[in-house]
Amino acid sequence: MAHKVIFQPSGSRGDIESGKTILEASRELGVGIESICGGKGTCGKCRVVVQEGFFEKFGIHSKMENLSPLTEAEKGKLKTGEIREGYRLACQTSIKGDVLLFVPEESRSGGQIVRKAAGEVKVDIEPAVAKYYVELEKATLEDPTADFERLKAGLEKSHGLKDLAIDFMTLRTLPDVLREGDWKVTVSVWMDREIIRVEPGVKDTLAGLAIDVGTTTVVGYLTDLRTGEVLAIDSMMNPQVMYGEDVMARITYAMSHDDGLRKMNEAIIKGLNKIIENTAKKAGLTAGDILEIVLVGNTAMHHIFLGINPEPVGLSPFPPSISGSIDVKARDLGLRAAPGANVHVLPIEAGFVGADNMGVVLAVEPYKSDETLLIIDIGTNGEIVLGNRERLLSTSCATGPAFEGAQIKYGMRAAPGAIERIRIDPKTKEVRFKVIGREEWSDELEESPGAKGICGSGIIEAIAEMFKAGVIRKNGTFNPELETKRLRKDENGQYEFVIAWKDETSIGKDITVTLSDVRAMQLAKGALYTGCKILMKRMGIEEVDRVILAGAFGSYIDREASMVIGMFPDCDLDKVVAIGNAAGDGARIALLNKDIRREANEVAKRIKYIELTVDPDFQTEFMRAMHFPHMKDRFPHVEHILEGIPVEAAQKR
To answer: pTM for the complete prediction?
Structure first.
């Protein structure tokens, strides 16, 4: 008997025979879990966390009773608190029923690749925090002025700073610091109005952290606030993934569990503290040197990070709790930066267009453009902005995690062994591919490529190549008339196409693309295209000047393949530009220039949000957009490719 086993955050899932260990299941599904002792239970490295409850999205009831009892080896390696939180050793635990498992960062081998490098930003450097060196007269019997008042007077005299306040935690340390520095100190002042740190002597270090909290990934950019240089980058999978792969799943978790919001908030705060610690260490600094943080994220991530109930965001009419930007002390949120450090969160545009999209807008600046730009932030939740200096529209569409490799039978997120590039010969239907971690194509290797699954960029190319080769038709069905051993029926009688034979994989089985996989991609790309199309209709235009693909994922997808399957409306491919993690770039811009923050609030009010589901054309447009590349719209810039598709695939509905 087989049971459904799902691993997070990789999203890998499959049916595993009863009695196999979690470690064996992970190897079958291509999930890397550390096991230095070879499965003997002596190293304790293969920790996983069992997620209990009914997970409607997966249709499973995951519970500890679906696993074998705790072994003596586990009792010896796991702490009491870990056992209470659902930790198990993968090598010691046998599967007896359906289960959802989370693999903690420290247990992962062949780590997940979070592709969010820092882009180049152009901004006048005017940070919210500035440092001032001041030498004070010592307190005497003749002049026993209080320490804070003495410091204020010195800063006003030397630097013209007036009416300063002081952070309470900084005040607590002030007497000792002044005397340690022999009354010569460096003072960090926030927004020219609050003293947030006092250090003895001359201290030049001025560092801040820009953070992009994505639904799937989180990245932090430690930045020199004097020069704008990125000092260190650290990233991780969002630890909230264990509570749901997408925004609605996490909102639902908060609604259905009394402690759901608390758990998700604690998970992200713990993760961010790790990023704070890691970036500081990489740069040779301490967490206490981080004096300012700017954070962006979609509306649900924003609310959960702040500990605000996200439930109203998930219910019509989807109002956020606050739309303007927020400033709050890092310590009040549980973040371990400098005790007086401030966290600035950029404004929200609407219920499903959050501060991350505002970061994208700051990075691209469509509000200053004469051209009409279509900006698509491709992720688990697709966010779209259309417009120019005259008018700006935005919307969001539930693309789901298919673009991340989830909801795909052999899908996985970007990690070593994931198939990321695919080519199919249109005549022979033979396949060649590349996996992450290898430069060569599969047919150039003497040994097995060791494929583990297909990541998001790989599944897009797979669908595009299958369409171009006539394997699938315009409506997404397989062409049963093909004569190739790669096209076959699976155990459920559904067609599937073999991308990698089992001797080309490291999981001991063929890697295929199924009809369900094609449907998942149709839904995702259809939602994205429909969002673009409706915004263009509202704007009264039939074409755009440029398409900007934002988000780390956008940098790794093939532009031609994306247009061939119809992810976005037709455009000159030379004018389709990928700009990487623009949300993170926007956060860095706001970190480096305090005036940009005011600009962000003003621009956010100008952007008109369009709710797709109430648009009268939504259902019709979505149905048409499900076809490859579209049921009716023309794509002249890839017409030469579409004309080469076998007639039976191109014409049949």
So the answer is: 0.83
